[in-house]
Amino acid sequence: MAQLDRRTFLAGAAVVAFDPVTSHWLTSLPENTGAIQIPHLDGELVTDEDALTEAGTDYGNLAHRRPRAVLRPGSVYDVVTVVRFANQHGLTVAVRGQGHSTYGQAQADCGVVIDSRTLATIREVTPEYAVVDAGVQWLDLIRTGLTARVAPPVSTDYLGLSVGGTLSVGGIGGASQRFGMLVDNTIELDVVTGDGRLVTCSADREPELFEAVLGGLGQFAVIVRAKVRLVAAPTMARIYTLTYPQVTDLTAAQRTALADGRFDYLEGQFVPTDDDGFTFVLEAGAWFTTEPPDDDALLAGLAPAGIDVVDMPYFEWLNRLYEEVEQIEALRLSGPWLNVFLPDAATDELVTELLTTLTPADAGGVALLYPTNRSLITRPQVMVPEGPVFFLLALLRAVSPPDDADVVRLIADNDALYARVRAVGGTQYPVNALHLTPADWRAHYGDRWPAVRHTKDRYDPRRVLTPGQGIFEEARGTAR
Fold first, then answer.
1. 321-343: per-residue pLDDT in tens?
2. Calpha distance 71→45 (Å, rounded)
3. Are 365 and 398 in contact (CB under 8 A)?
4. pTM of this prediction?
5. What residue spans of 109-246 are helical by DSSP H?
6. Helix, strand, coil percent content, the chain, rounded in steps of 5
7. Under a CB-based contact definition with an 8 Å cutoff, are residues 91 and 113 in contact?
8. 297 HSE (CA, 13 A, CB side)
9. Of 143, 76, 82, the residue nearest 108 (C-alpha)
10. CA distance 469 to 104
11. Computed from CA positions of residues 466, 106, 189, 85, in that sequence, does the dihedral angle turn out positive or negative?
12. Interhelix angle 344-354/404-423, nearest 10 degrees
């Protein structure tokens, strides 16, 4: 969905007061009641049906936890005001960017959802960095940057995500094998902590908070502005599509390509075949502006069964999935996604075992498999397996036609596969449809759990922020 200007919502009934007895927001201030007038806002707080319904669902269309109000902030100070108000009156707060969570992670049952789309200004673009509001889409930042021949070193496959939402999770893509995740390329943040303080943080200024928020799943502070790294951008992309008959052929070729860093972009996927199986595709890119890459050098030692090579404008490649994802989102299909990180040593065996039962129908929309160098993942909140290399396995399912029984079955399959991943030392990239308890989250963080708990106590002591993750207590509401 496009970014929205707060003036779009002026037709809605704005909230002016809060009744602490009923926990209801009021659009008028009754006389002789205990209702509390809300502080001044540059934007508005609304309770209309459309706003609450939108904030109570997401891209996964699986969890539906409605808030009682939605903040359309007109400034970062509105975020400060609402978070402080939530602390005073026992409310919960979550931030919703472009709504691409999959299982209610950005919902706040009976709380307040902050719609960051009205905080969407690109503040500054230089050859080395950009300063942007949290609600800015990567698509808009890249478009702006490319006019000056610069771009982020890493992009997610779909560019319609908000900067704040992505940095709260990690931000992985085909260039992560050379540059790490988007959180590894973040220089500075402005955040509102769970206790309502506006803080600028970086590696040199409030470093504990900085490291906690990047990949911190919204648990410690709300990102309101980010300073992100930019690099010189090419004009063209040469894309190599290499096919393999077996998944182990694919992973062997990926390891070869990863080891010498020959490609600028490296991913892989399972592509359905007519006989209800898969062929395995290594998808790689080499960027250029004037001198095309050396095909023979890039393909040496990869031994594909099939080769396709195509040149296209760099931006066209980066934005290749935007329209497709927008069309899928409009269908409101259920999306029981699973994204996990596998230790290199366990990848071939686990994925080979998975493929004995996985069908194209159950894989759903897209199934990805590709490696990354662990040394490039520097943010402590992003949990990845031990070892020099790990693989992302992503089953980006879309259940079509809609079928509730299939959804239940596939989420159960996710739970079972995640347990298998954990058993071999793997972790999750937390944008999933999984049944996770606080005990599961403690296992996810492992030895880091005491530090995570301490940081929560320090920056969000009243447990105001992002209840939908269910990390510190069971998420409220019902997810089917």
1. 999 999 989 999 999 999 999 99
2. 4
3. yes
4. 0.93
5. 138-146, 163-169, 176-179, 207-213
6. 30, 25, 40
7. no
8. 8
9. 82
10. 8
11. negative
12. 150
